[in-house]
Amino acid sequence: MMEKNNSKEDSKSMCLISSQPVHLDNDIKSFETVSSKYLITKSVNLDEAIEIVGFGSFHYYILFICGSLIAAISISVTSVSFIIPAAQCDFQMTSVHKGILNGSSMIGMFFGCFISGYMADSKGRKYTLVVCMMIDGIFNLISSVSQIYLVLIFCKLMSGFGVSGITVFYSYLGEFVNSKNRKKFICWMELFWTFGVILLPCEHYNI
């Protein structure tokens, strides 16, 4: 009889021990479900949402993409100073003509900032950046084979219009990075402008 009682007690204790993990698993699953529902239904601001997502290699990838485009824009803007000496002979330009050519991209940037800013708020940052970079690239290609002074002026004007989208990079990159690393990433992105300015004379020297 004693052996039977002991066996019954052992079986009961085993049942209690085996049932505890089941209850723990159920509690964990219910807690995860409640937590996920809480995160989905709770309204958070942008900075809190970025903190929830976390920080990783994706942000460095975005920094590299934005920085590379910043470097391309710096080459596009500063390349006029290398074009003018050769264009002076080809187009028989005076000082006035050289001033107009040098300032045409700035005029395009002045008027393009208003439109690119409106597009960024209404159509989205990515859409605006893609359109602006396409405009800059296409008209830079056309200007590289232009043999007419007025066509060159128009191409540089439209190139400046596309370059005006550079202001969107700061808000685009800042919306991906948390507040702790935002200032640091924007400063790092500015370094790519310097890299582009250094790369341009090196490329011009080799040509």
Automatic annotation (TrEMBL):
Transmembrane segments: 60-87, 99-120, 149-173, 185-201
Keyword Cell membrane: no
Source species, domain of life: Eukaryota
Record's protein name: Major facilitator superfamily (MFS) profile domain-containing protein
Family indicated by similarity: Belongs to the major facilitator superfamily.
InterPro entries: MFS_dom, MFS_sugar_transport-like, MFS_trans_sf
Entry GO CC: membrane
Species of provenance: Macrosiphum euphorbiae
Keyword Transmembrane: yes
Keywords for the protein's UniProt record, in alphabetical order: Membrane, Transmembrane, Transmembrane helix, Transport
Lipid bilayer topology: Multi-pass membrane protein
Gene3D superfamilies: MFS general substrate transporter like domains
Any one GO MF annotation of this record: transmembrane transporter activity
Subcellular location field: Membrane
